Amino acid sequence: MAATNRVDDSKVDALLERARREIDEGLLPSCQLALALDGEVIVDQCYGDSNVDTRYVIFSCTKGLVAGAVWMAFGDGILAPDQKVCEVIPEFGTNGKDVITVEQLLMHTSGFPRAPMGPDVWADREKRLERYAKWRLNWDPGTRMEYHPTSAHWVLADLVQQASGQDYRQFVAERITGPLNLKGLSLGAPVDEQDGIATLAGVGELPDPDEVERLFGVREIPLGEVTEEALLHFNEPDAKAVGVPGGGGVARACDIALYYQALLHNPGGLWDQEVLDDGTGVIRTTFPDPLIGGVSANRTRGMVVAGGDGKAAFRGFGRTASARTFGHMGAGGQVAWADPETGLSFCYLTNGLDANPLRSGRRGTSLSSKAAACVP
Fold first, then answer.
1. Integer Cα distance of 295 and 238 in angstroms
2. Rounded to whole angstroms, how far apart are CA atoms 170 and 367?
3. Which of 85, 99, 110, 303 could staple 104 via S-S, CB 3.0–4.6 A?
4. pTM, whole model, 2 decimals?
5. pLDDT in the model for residue 321
6. 17 CB contacts (<8 Å, ≥6 apart)?
């Protein structure tokens, strides 16, 4: 039970009951969730085939960690939001990409959402640079928003690496996860250190096309590169070792909840405060996001903000968190956010990859709504 009188224990019970439901029903093999407040974990629970030390592949929740690394580079003065990518990575400046800025990468407005970067290239930086030179634009940078599942964050990672002179994974370890003592969170898990990472499993069935059409106007949800096959690839030891910056981090729920506490409180001045406030609170693009039915993207330089337009649930934040709540969700139903109004942070992780994204989305909405209500 929660170890603070600021939390409503009955609301915590309701949250835990909701998290346990699909484990008891046999849909999900396991899940893990954590609430944190005032810099401390107050709820740390798991269900199914897991324990509180089990680590999970967190998919696009990784983007929130990479954003934190880029913000540090901004604070160090080695990168800048309006800086052209090609000024740091010359190989990138081909085929009209010479105009793209670091900020556009963070906001998914850079124009190459489907640029290919497969496992045959991931682990070799020279091959990545060669691949950047071949990439072409799908649309003019800065003119629209479309989610870049992995492409933009590969460039962000290599920007941090080039600007700092340090491997991007080591930069994250030495500047973020180490100082914050986040023992289970890493961007890349060496092959000999992968014990205790939950095995991913496909579960459930595809959604009813009629329901999809009623909600989104199309009969099939476009998955792009975020297919079950692609996600299950992260069961491979080599894939987990690479540390794919757009979706290959591993963590416990308590690590993510504490990371978001750090974003709220900036312990030891880890980040430049002005940069941190901007990244967690200033919405810089409201272009419609086609992935969530054309709802305003509400993206900062690296995060998504719930917003006060009544559409927060579409963005993964549920219905009870404040408009200022920020975070980044992940494929397969992963949830991660912090609410500056209450000081609460929340993370939910599962290794069950539901084939029905509508059900997964409703689960996230319900869990987030119940989590945010735990602190009045």
1. 36
2. 33
3. 110
4. 0.95
5. 97
6. none
Residue whose C-alpha is closest to residue 82's, from 101, 109, 63, 61 = 101
Domain boundaries, the chain: 9-61+183-372, 72-169
76: its two tokens: 């160090």
Residue 225 makes CB contacts below 8 A (sequence gap 6+) with 114, 149, 150
| 360 C-beta neighbours (distance < 10 Å), count | 24
228 falls in which pLDDT band (50, 70, 90)?
Answer: confident
Backbone angles phi, psi at 202, to 5 degrees: -75, 135
Average pLDDT over residues 109-132: 93
Q: At what angle do helices 357-372 and 209-216 cross, to 10 degrees?
A: 60
Interatomic CA distance for residues 143 and 285, integer angstroms: 10
pLDDT tens-place string over residues 201-220: 999 887 676 665 565 555 66
Rg (CA), the chain: 19
Check residue 291 and give its pLDDT. 85
Fold category of 9-61+183-372 in CATH = Beta-lactamase (3.40.710)
**Strands 344-350 vs 352-354: parallel, antiparallel or unpaired:** unpaired
CATH architecture assignment, domain 72-169:
Up-down Bundle (1.20)
Helix-helix angle 253-265:273-281, to 10 degrees: 120
CA 178, CA 256: separation in Å to the nearest integer? 14
CB contact burial 245-269 (16+ within 10 A = b; e otherwise) = bbbbbbbbbbbbbbbbbbbbeeeee
**What H or E segment, with its residue span, contains residue 198?**
none
Residue 61: pLDDT band (50, 70, 90) is very high
User: Which are the contacts of 211, defined by CB distance < 8 A and separation ≥ 6?
Assistant: 358
Confidence of residue 312 (pLDDT cuts 50, 70, 90): very high
The reported pLDDT for the residue numbered 356 is: 87
**Residue 108 CA, distance from chain mean position:** 13
Distances (CA, A) of 14 to 41, 193, 289: 18, 35, 32
Two domains, one topology: 9-61+183-372 and 72-169: no
Query: In degrees to the nearest 10, what's the CA dihedral of 8, 10, 16, 18?
Result: -120
Secondary structure (3-state) at 185: coil
Q: Tell me, rounded to whole angstroms, the distance of Cα 185 from its chain centroid.
A: 13
